[in-house]
Amino acid sequence: MRKAWKYVSILVVVMSLAVSAGCAGQSGAVKLGLLFPMTGPVPTYGQSSKEAAELAIQEWNDKGGVLGKPVEWVLADGGCDGATATDAANKLIDQDGVKFIVGEVCSSASIPVSEITNPKQILQISPTSTNPQVTIDKPYVFRACFLDPFQGDVGASFAMDDLGASTAAVMYDKGNDYVLGLAGYFKDAFEARGGQVLVYEAYTESDTDFSAILSKVADANPDVLYLPDYYNKVNLIGKQAQEKGITATMLGADGWDSADLDVTAVDGGYFSNHYAPSDPRPIVQDFLSRYQEAYGKEPDALAVLAYDATSVLLSAIDEAGTTDTAKVRDTLAGIQFEGVAGNITFNDQGDPVKTAAIIHVTGGEKQFVKFVAP
Description:
This protein is of the alpha/beta class. The protein contains eleven helices and 14 strands. Strand 11 and strand 12 form a beta hairpin.
C-alpha cells in the first residue's frame, strides 16, 4: 500500500511539473532575431544596428516588456552576403524558433532572406535595405527606410537644381543589388531632367584599383561624380579620384553614412541619408542623448533605422495582442508610428513613405543641408 501511494505521489509530482512547464512556455519571452552584418565589408553597420536594436528592446523591457512578457533576442551575423545571411536566417528560424526577424541591413542579403521568411510566414523587417525587390509581393516583409528609386531621384534633382550640374559620371559595383539599383535610378532621373551621363562604368567588389575608370572620368570632366556604394569602397575611390585631379563634386547615398567614412577623401561631397542629427524633434534629440549615454558616440543612420524597425515591430506585436505573425503583419500594415527617422505608415508593399536628408561633407564634418520630400 505504501508503494502504491509512493507511485501516486510521484505521478502527481510529474504531472505538476508538466503543467508548470506548459505554463512557463505560454508565459515565455517574446523572441526576436537580429540579423546584422557583424563581419564582412561593412561591420560598422552591423555594430550600429545591434546597439540600437538592443537599446530599443531594453527600453521595452524596462517598461514591462511586450504582451506583459520580456523581450529576448538572438543575434546572427548576415555578413552583408546572400549565402551567409540565408544560412543565418535558417538557423534563427529552424533552431532558435524565431518568428520575427529584424534585418538584414544590406539589400543583397535581405533579398534572398526574404525568399525564405515570406513563404514560412516569418515576419521580417529590414531597417535599411533600400532595393525595391526586398518587399515586392512579399506580405510578411517590411522595411523602415525609403527606397532606392526615390533616393536616386533625390540625388539627381539635388545635383541639377541645387548644384547646377548638367553632366555626370556614375561608377557602380555591378554585383551589388543596392549599388547597381541606385546607379540606374540616378542615371534615369538625371537624364530625364535633361542632364548627360558622360561616364557609366562598372567595377567588381574585389577591385581596389579604379585608375582605368577614373581616367575616363577625368577626361570627360563631368560636373558631378555619383558613387552610390558603401563607405569602404567610397573611401578608396574618393582618394584615387583626388590623386587623378578630378574636380567633380562627389555625390552618394546612405551607404556613405559611417563613422569610418574618409571625410578627407570625399571632402566637398554630398550624400542622401535617412535622418539628420540636427533635426530638432524631441524624439530625435531624446534618442541621440540615450544612444550617446549608452555607447559614447553619435548614432549613424543605420542605428536610427534599426531602432525604428525594432520599435515599430514590437509596437505591432503589443498592439496585435499576440505573437501570431499573420495578425501582427496585419497590425503592422496599418500602423501609424512616429520614428526617429520620421513618421512610419506602410504602403501595400510594406514600404514606408518618408523624406530624405541631404548631408554635406565639408571641413572634416557632415553638415545637414535640407530635407527632400517624395
